[in-house]
Specification:
Number of strands: 6
Largest sheet: 6 strands, mixed
Order of helices and strands: HHEEEEEEH
CATH topology: PH-domain like
Strand content: 25-35%
Strand order of the largest sheet: 3-2-1-6-5-4
CATH architecture: Roll
Structural class: alpha+beta
CATH class: Mainly Beta
Helix content: 10-25%
Radius of gyration: 14 Å
Shape: globular
């Protein structure tokens, strides 16, 4: 049986999400959500993205070392994840993008199991 910390590790959560169909790896560039994969050149505006779920993690040795993992679904059915620092080391491009997604009234769906 896994302990709670191991179960909630970033790698284990990413594996579970991948198994649930969140297979795309995203980044935010120039205000748009973009795929890391070379075969998917599509990018998405905030209004084309829904936050399905998110997970926050704190570093073991440094509580300021915090990250957030978003599980996302795009309007064309593409599903994937993006990880970003938050707090002290937050990426302003990602924060701004997700603030716009949330401001557009995108509520958490939590549709996956």
């Amino acid at each position: 049986m896994q302990d709670k910390e191991e179960e909630r590790s970033l790698i284990n959560v990413e594996k579970k999400l991948d198994a649930d169909g969140f297979t795309e790896d995203f980044t935010v560039k120039d205000g748009r959500l973009c795929s890391f994969r070379s075969d998917n050149k599509k990018s998405y505006a905030p209004e084309e993205v829904t936050i399905v779920d998110f997970y926050r993690f704190e570093g073991e040795s440094d509580p300021d070392d915090m990250s957030i993992l978003y599980a996302l679904e795009c309007n064309d059915g593409v599903r994937g994840t993006i990880s970003s620092a938050y707090g002290t080391y937050a990426d302003s491009d990602s924060l701004e993008f997700f603030k716009k997604v949330e401001d557009l009234g995108k509520n958490l769906k939590k549709a996956h199991k």
